[in-house]
Each structure stands twice: as structure tokens, then as C-alpha cells.
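This is your field. Please look over both lines of this record.
***
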Amino acid sequence: MNYKERKFYKKNLMEVLHTTLNPYEPGVVRIHLVPAKYNPIKANPSVVILNGKDIVPINLAWTILLAIFIKEVNAYKGNEVTQEELKKVITQTVNKALEIYRKPGRIVLKEDLNKILSVFIDIAEGREPRRTNRATINWKICKPNESTT
């Protein structure tokens, strides 16, 4: 782990983070991000629990990207996020991730976020994740206090 990763981890990843995508749709996705135990030397994978039943390991960079996204979504305090607000959430997520990772750049971080969430939706809906998920992000989102977590 580099200095910025360690700093972010200690400040933001010492507890489970959670949010809900598509809360009122058949494709609801409850995301629980369970960070790995903090180790300043070695970056262990974290796990994501989807809808309380599917477990997906993710690496440190994706853990940080997902954590930023969850915190940005949860700032809406249980209100539905419009497509315009979702664009802002994505932009803010990418901007904050760029403070930690200068490379690979804005486009790749945005594509990674899209891939992460698209894979989670595929898994939650019982589909095998597509190898290339480049679909436009188009979800309704709410904070977990509206869901049964």
C-alpha cells in the first residue's frame, strides 16, 4: 500500500459500508463492502456481499473506488438519486479517486466503476457477469436505510 492508500484506508475503511441500487425494482442490489483487516504492508482483498448471499472478492484499488462511490451515494440520505445526480456522484467519485490514483486516469476509473457495478447487478440478478461491461450506468439508488439490510 502506498501512503495515500494507507491514509484513505485508515480514515474510511475501518467499518462495513453499504448501499442499495434499484431499491424498488426487481433487480435490487444490496451492496455490503467488508474491508480486509488493515495491514499497512500488504493489501489483502476485501469482500463485497451482494443481497446477503453472494460473496465477491475485490482488490484494494476497487475497494477504494467502491467505498468512495458508496459514501457519495449515501450523502443523499435515503432519497432517490436522479440520473443527473448520478452523473455528479460518478464525477465526484472519480475526482476523489484521482486524489489517490493519478493513473490510470479519469476514463479508466469511470469504466472500472461501471464494470464493478454492472458485474454486481449481473450477479444479483442471477446472470453470469459479462466479460466486458461497458453499458451506460443507469440505476436508481438509495441509501440502505430504505432497504432491509
In short: Residues 133-149 have pLDDT under 50 and may be disordered. The longest strand covers residues 29-34.
